[in-house]
Every structure is written in C-alpha cells, then in structure tokens.
C-alpha cells in the first residue's frame, strides 16, 4: 500500500530535483559561498570585503565548469589589469586628466576585445578593463598608497575566486560535462529525426529553418561547454580534442545533409520525378539506419554499434546506387538528368560516410586514450570588426564624458561614477541586446539601493556579530541569486547583488554616513542611466547597420572558401559561418523577416562554399597524370569560375550571377570534354566527382528560393 | 627555512611563494593522475583533487612551521 502512494511522490520529487530543485541548490550554494568569503574577508582583515563579494557574484554561475573557466580568465584579466594600472599610476599619478584619458582608452580597447572574441577570452578582456578601473580610480586620490591598494584588490579578487571555485566544485556540483554530454546526445537524436524526415520528404520549411538555426547555435554553445568541461573534469580534458572533432564532424554532417536536401527539393520543384524515383531505394537505405536513432539518445557504447551498422550500410548503398543507375539508364535519361542523379547519389554516399566518421568519433569517447584525439581544426569564432570598434568607442566616450563631469564638478563620489561606467561597459559588451541588459542592471541597482539603505541604517545598527549579519544579508542574497537563475531576469540579479555589495556592505570598521552613502548610490545610478542611454543611442548593435554588415561577412565566407589557405579550411569555414549566423540571429531577434533573409544567405553560402572547398580538396589530391595537370583546360575554367564566384558574393547583382552561371557551365563543359583513363564511377574517377560539385554549384545558383534569385534580388535592392 | 623572504625589496611570507610553487606541483601531479586515469575510480574527483592539493600544501608548509 505504502509503495503505491510513495511511487508518485518519489517521481514528483525527482522531477522537482531536475527542475526547480536546481535553482534552490544554486541559491544555497550562492549563500554558502558569499558567507564563507565574507567571513574570511573579515577574519583576514582585508580593507574592502565588498570587492570579495562583488567578485563572488560576478563569477557565480549555475554550472561548476563555467565558474572555473570564468575564474581562470578572471585571474588572467585581473593580472593584466593590475599591470596596466601600475604602469599608468607610475606614469600619471599627478596628472588626473592624462590618467583618465588613458584609462578611457584602455577600457575602450578591452571592450572592443570582448566584443571581438565573445567567449572566455572576451571575458578576460572585460575583466582586464574593469579591474583596471576598480584598482586605478580609487588610487588616483591617494597615489602614495596606490601600489599597496592595487595589491590588496588583487588579493581580494583572488579570495573571491577561490571561495567560489571551491564551493561550486565540491558541494553538489552541477557539472558542465553532464550538460555537454546531454546536449551532444539530444542534438544527434534531433538531427537523426530531422534527416529522416528530410529524406522522406516530410520536412516543413519553417521547421527546416528553425532546426538549422538551432544547430548553428548549438555548435557555438558546445564549443564553450567543451572549454568549460576541460577546466572542470580531467576525464573531459583528455577527450577535449575528440569533442572538438565531434563538433566539427557534426557541422560537416549537417552541411552535407543540407546540400542533399536542397538538391532533392530542387529536383521535386523541377518535376524530375524519374530521377527521384530511381533514387528512392538508396534514400530508404540511409533512412533505415537513421530511423532507430530519432527516438532515443545514443550512448557511447551504442555509437560503436552504430558505426558498424553505417559501415555495412555504406557497402550496401554503393550496390544500391549502381542498381539504381542501371535502372535509370533503361529509361534513356538525358544528360542533365544523369548529372542530377549522379550528384545526388554521390552526396548521399558522402553523407553516409560523414555519418560513419561521426559515429566512430563518438564511439572513441569510450577509450581513455585514442588516436582521434589529434585534431587540429580549431573552432574559429568570427566577429564583425566594425561592431567591436563601435563598442570600444562607445565605452571610451562614456568614460570620457563622465570623467569630464567628475573633473568639472569635483564631486567626491566621482570615482564611483567613473568606475561604474567602466564596469557596465564591460558587462554589457558581449550580449546580443546591450540596451536591455544595461536597463536590467540599472533596475537591479535601484533595488539594491533601497534594500541597502534600509539594511544599513535601520537593521545593521541593532545587530551584533557575524551570525546576525548573515541573517540580515540572507534575504537580499537569496533574492539576487534567485533572479540569477532566471535567464530573463539575470541582469537584474547581477545589478542588485553587485551594487549592493559594492556600496552597502559594512567594512571591518563600519562607517554610518548617510550623506556619503546617498552620494555614492546617486553616482552609481547616474552612471548606469548614462550607460543605458549610451548603449541605446550610440549605434546599438541590434539595428540594420549591423545586419547588413553581418550579411556581408556571411557572403565573404565564400571568398574565404575560394581563396583561403587549404589547411584548416573546412573547420574554419564551417565554424566561422555558423558563428556569424548565430550572432546575426541574436542581433535580429526582433525581426523574423531579417532572420529569415540571413538564414537564406547562410544556406547559399554553406552550399556554394562547401562545394568549392570540396573542389579544391579534390584538385589538391589529384594523381600525377597529364589529364589532371595544372594548366589543363578544365582547371583553368575552374579558376575562372572561382573568380566569378568571388565577384558575385562581393557584389550580388543579377549580372554577376549570370556571369558566374556562364563560368560554371563553361567549367562543366570543360570537365566533360576531358578524356580520363578511369572507370566513370565516382569512387574511382576524380573528374566525375568534380563534375558533381560543379553541377551542385550550378543548381544552387539557379535555385529560385535563393536570395540571389532575380525576384529576391529585386526586393533586396528596393 | 625562513618564514619571510624578500623578493625585489618586498618582504613576503614564505607561505605565499610556497602556495605558487604548490600550484605548479599540484598541476603537474593532477595532469599525471588524470593521464593515468586515477580519477575514474574516485567517487568525487573534484574533492580528491582539492584534498590532494591541500595535503601537498600542508606537507610543504610543515617544513617551515615545524
């Protein structure tokens, strides 16, 4: 009887533990960390316990790997900031104007760096910037003690980092590695479902677009998770190279599938039913492998079996394709139909091949050491240079205006004014919507001001001892930490906690000075309001100017594919294109039509760029025979085509598209006219493979749904 | 070993330098154990790593404050 009633309760509890329970654990950990750090700060008699807690709350993250990674980069950022500040103080201790000018320049540089890199390296840039402000500004008032003050700040920051790292790593760690593992498995399951539906021809266009955007976002997210996991778990550090390879292979796999799917769709639209029917058994062969994968998560051990299944399927698929070709030949197809069939069949075979290597890499995660660990194709994030410069200039300008105000009014709280501006600029620089984040930080700091005033002047004077202080601080910290766990309000949580700790936390020797307190808070709030205004008014990133630039950057990926160095080209192309799309998607989240347009560009760039890279790899691996020579007609025609494609993607006009089409057709004719002493199968004949890549580029250029199509081009120009 | 050493004209507690030394040693030890796969058998790998570091630091600190 009791088991019957206990069962649902247990299930409910387990459910709670996976969802809401995690937030409670996070809040509890935040409180433990904060009080441990605060106690140590008082016990060690550090001059500013507030810096310790500010550090704690800035690096506080739900996942322990993220905390460790952030801590590591924060330490680096702190030391760089410290070195810079000691230099600046040594140079300009007597000259505040020069000092503030160079500080503004430094903050601008760091903000630009943060916008440029956007991962943990960007985080180090942010911290180098605002640690400099935190150390340098108070020191300008007392240059004689500047060096000691700077050392104290570094000690305080290190203590905060140490406490957060230890508590988050030891107490109920919510590991990044488990999150990485589940993301990988879920992504592969969803991809299998997506590919299965696509091969069956049942994929609605909206879902196709959504999933593609999601896979791009996950490719970027996984790279960050991989970095964080390497910090946290020695098990994953040994597998870091394989995980990077897995991510890269997944990108390749999805690009290949994308090409296949587009080709099949175009065949449908063009009414080439004969070719599609001939391909059907081959498609069914691959779909049969995918079918069991789309309903459950694939573990490492199952990946071993998957690899074996795919290997068997590849052999069978080759036979199927030969049979289908014979069958199609009996219907007397024309040249174009045969080319369509060959291209699709080859893409399908290569898709199975990619699936095989993905499964092998996934299976290799089982072993502690493996040859697949050697992977050199790094994930290369791409950011728009202009956007980074704009962010840097915005930060510098804000610092300059506020510094000028401070110098002109000689306001005693001027340090807080300028320091807050430096911190805000850094914190918001990496987000997709800086205006919203700055607004949230402002709201949070307002809440912190009210709570801080009440606590400091009405509650704390009646208390005695550390235990009671903790009791008084618990509600505030718990509220802030709860807000941190809700992603839509996390900015408010950060604002509340950071500025509460910075301005209303009692030091070892508590000073109750209401005027000073109100002055400080006024300075902080004024500075935040100015920062919000600056992010809203000075070229905010979620506006058409940046969309156009990112679209241009996306198109330039094809130029990179045509002219970049062949070594590391695949990984660089795949990851960079996805990273660009992911940013563009975030910056245009308010405009679904813009998102759609950018996604269509990304599709086209992916198709053409990928085919061009395959072409180049094929040419680099040609055997030494006279028909494959550097100066044969077909290779010259392909070089001409490359230049035409560059012109087209730099300036996408109808005229350039026609020229590119002519160049591709010319290249196709040249390849066809070259005699080759090999069997005309795509596994034996390089020219056959070259022909299908060329044909694929041609079909991508002709696609009526691409953004290059005449109708779309006209709308674009208007 | 003296309890304070002077580095570039600044007196520092030897413990600070020892801490930095231990970070390096501990990092090396950690890499080695991870390579050998010792952590796979641990219930709470992070706890083991932190404890190992504390043991190392404690043992070296005893050389100074014995």
Task: Give a written overview of the molecule.
- The complex is a heterodimer of chains A (718) and B (66).
- Chain A is mainly α and 718 residues long.
- Chain A has 3 domains: 2-174 and 385-537, no CATH class; 176-232 and 239-368, Methane Monooxygenase Hydroxylase, Chain G, domain 1 (Up-down Bundle); 571-717, Four Helix Bundle (Hemerythrin (Met), subunit A) (Up-down Bundle), CATH 1.20.120.
- Chain A contains 27 helices and no strands.
- Chain A is elongated and about 95 Å long.
- Chain A starts with a helix and ends with a helix.
- Mean pLDDT of chain A is 86; it is low at 712-718.
- Chain B is of the alpha+beta class and 66 residues long.
- Chain B has one domain (4-64).
- Chain B contains 2 helices and 2 strands; from the N terminus they run E-E-H-H.
- Chain B has helices at residues 14-36, 45-64, and strands at 4-7, 10-13.
- In chain B, strand 1 (4-7) and strand 2 form a beta hairpin.
- In chain B, helix 1 (14-36) packs antiparallel against helix 2.
- Chain B is elongated, with a radius of gyration of 15 Å.
- The model of chain B has no long low-confidence stretch (mean pLDDT 87).
- The A-B interface holds A 64, 166, 169-170, 173, 232-235, 237-238, 368 and B 30, 33-35, 37, 39-40, 44-47, 49-50.
- Chain A: GO terms for molecular function: transmembrane transporter activity.
- Chain A: It is found in: Cell membrane.
Summarize the structure.
The complex is a heterodimer of chains A (718) and B (66). With 718 residues, chain A is mainly alpha-helical. Chain A has 27 helices and no strands.
Number of domains of chain B: 1
Q: Low-confidence runs of chain B (pLDDT<50, min 5 residues)?
A: none
What's the helix-strand series of chain A?
HHHHHHHHHHHHHHHHHHHHHHHHHHH
* Shape by Cα distribution of chain A: elongated
What oligomeric state is this? heterodimer
Would you count the extended β strands of chain B for me?
A: 2
The major β-sheet of chain A equals: none
* Global outline of chain B: elongated
Order of helices and strands of chain B: EEHH
Largest sheet features of chain B: 2 strands, antiparallel
Distance between the termini of chain B: 10 Å
Rg of chain A, alpha carbons: 30 Å
Give the fraction of residues assigned to helices of chain B: 55-70%
Estimated share of beta-strand residues of chain B: 5-15%
Q: Roughly what is the average pLDDT of chain B, rounded to an integer? A: 87
- Largest sheet strand order of chain B: 1-2
Pfam families (chain A): FUSC
Main location (chain A): membrane
GO molecular function (chain A): transmembrane transporter activity
Keywords (chain A): Cell membrane, Membrane, Transmembrane, Transmembrane helix
């Amino acid at each position: 009887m009791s088991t019957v009633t206990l069962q649902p309760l247990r299930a409910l509890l387990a459910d709670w533990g996976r969802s809401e329970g995690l937030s409670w654990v996070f809040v509890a950990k935040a409180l433990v960390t904060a009080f441990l750090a605060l106690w140590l700060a008082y016990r060690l008699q550090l001059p500013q316990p507030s810096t310790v807690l500010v550090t704690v709350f800035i690096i506080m993250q739900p996942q322990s790997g993220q905390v460790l990674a952030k801590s590591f980069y924060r330490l680096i950022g702190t030391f760089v900031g410290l070195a810079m500040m000691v230099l600046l103080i040594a140079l300009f201790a007597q000259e505040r104007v020069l000092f503030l000018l160079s500080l503004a320049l430094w903050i601008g540089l760091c903000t630009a760096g943060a916008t440029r890199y956007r991962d943990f390296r960007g985080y180090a840039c942010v911290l180098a910037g605002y640690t400099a402000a935190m150390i340098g500004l108070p020191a300008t008032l007392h240059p004689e003690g500047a060096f000691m003050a700077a050392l104290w700040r570094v000690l305080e920051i290190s203590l905060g980092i140490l406490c957060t790292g230890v508590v988050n790593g030891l107490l109920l760690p919510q590991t990044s590695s488990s999150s990485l593992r589940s993301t990988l498995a879920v992504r592969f399951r969803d991809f299998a479902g997506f590919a299965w539906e696509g091969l069956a021809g049942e994929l609605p266009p909206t879902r196709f677009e959504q999933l593609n955007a999601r896979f791009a976002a996950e490719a970027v997210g996984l790279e960050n998770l991989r970095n964080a996991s390497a910090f946290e778990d020695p098990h994953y550090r040994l597998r870091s190279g394989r995980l990077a390879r897995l991510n890269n292979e997944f990108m390749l796999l999805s690009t290949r599938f994308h090409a296949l799917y587009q080709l099949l769709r175009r065949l449908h639209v063009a009414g080439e039913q004969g070719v599609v029917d001939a391909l059907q058994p081959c498609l069914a062969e691959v779909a049969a492998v995918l079918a069991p994968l789309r309903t459950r998560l694939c573990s490492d051990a199952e990946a071993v079996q998957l690899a074996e299944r795919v290997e068997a399927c590849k052999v069978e698929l080759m036979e199927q394709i030969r049979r289908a070709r014979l069958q199609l030949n009996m219907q007397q197809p024309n040249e174009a139909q045969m080319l369509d069939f060959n291209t699709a069949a080859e893409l399908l075979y290569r898709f199975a091949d990619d699936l095989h290597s993905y499964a092998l890499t996934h299976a290799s995660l089982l072993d502690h050491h493996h040859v697949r660990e050697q992977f050199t194709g790094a994930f290369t994030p791409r950011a728009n240079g202009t956007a980074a410069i704009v962010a840097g200039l915005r930060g510098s300008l804000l610092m300059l205006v506020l510094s000028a105000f401070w110098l002109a009014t000689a306001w005693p709280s001027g340090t807080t004014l300028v320091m807050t501006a430096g911190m805000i600029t850094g914190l918001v620089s990496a987000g997709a919507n800086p205006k919203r984040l700055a607004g949230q930080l402002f709201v949070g700091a307002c809440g912190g001001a009210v709570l801080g005033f009440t606590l400091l002047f009405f509650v704390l004077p009646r208390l005695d001892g550390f235990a009671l202080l903790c009791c008084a601080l618990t509600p505030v910290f718990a509220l802030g930490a709860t807000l941190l766990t809700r992603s839509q309000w996390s900015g408010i949580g950060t604002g509340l906690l950071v500025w509460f700790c910075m301005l209303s936390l009692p030091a070892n020797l508590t000073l109750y000075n209401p005027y000073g307190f109100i002055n400080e808070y006024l300075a902080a709030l004024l500075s935040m309001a100015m920062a919000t205004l600056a992010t809203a008014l000075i070229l905010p990133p979620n506006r058409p100017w940046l969309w156009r630039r990112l679209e241009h950057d996306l198109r330039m990926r094809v130029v990179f594919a045509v002219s970049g160095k062949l070594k590391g080209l695949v990984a660089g192309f795949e990851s960079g294109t996805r990273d660009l799309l992911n940013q563009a998607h975030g910056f245009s989240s308010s405009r679904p039509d813009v998102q759609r347009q950018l996604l269509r560009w990304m599709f086209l760039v992916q198709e053409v760029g990928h085919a061009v890279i395959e072409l180049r790899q094929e040419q680099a691996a040609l055997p030494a025979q006279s028909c494959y020579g550097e100066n044969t007609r077909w290779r010259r025609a392909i070089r001409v085509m490359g230049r035409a494609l560059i012109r087209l993607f730099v300036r996408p006009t109808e005229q350039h598209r026609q020229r590119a089409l002519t160049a591709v057709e010319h290249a196709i004719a040249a390849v066809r006219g070259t005699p080759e002493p090999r069997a005309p199968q795509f596994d034996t004949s390089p020219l056959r493979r070259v022909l299908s890549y060329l044909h694929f580029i041609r079909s991508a250029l002709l696609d009526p749904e691409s953004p290059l199509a005449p109708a779309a081009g006209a709308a674009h120009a208007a | 070993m003296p309890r304070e050493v002077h580095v570039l004209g600044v007196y520092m507690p030897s413990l600070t330098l020892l801490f930095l030394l231990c970070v390096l040693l501990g990092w090396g030890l950690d890499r080695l154990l991870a390579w050998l796969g010792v952590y796979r058998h641990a219930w709470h790998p992070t706890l083991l790593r932190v404890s190992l570091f504390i043991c190392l630091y404690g043992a070296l600190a005893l050389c100074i404050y014995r």
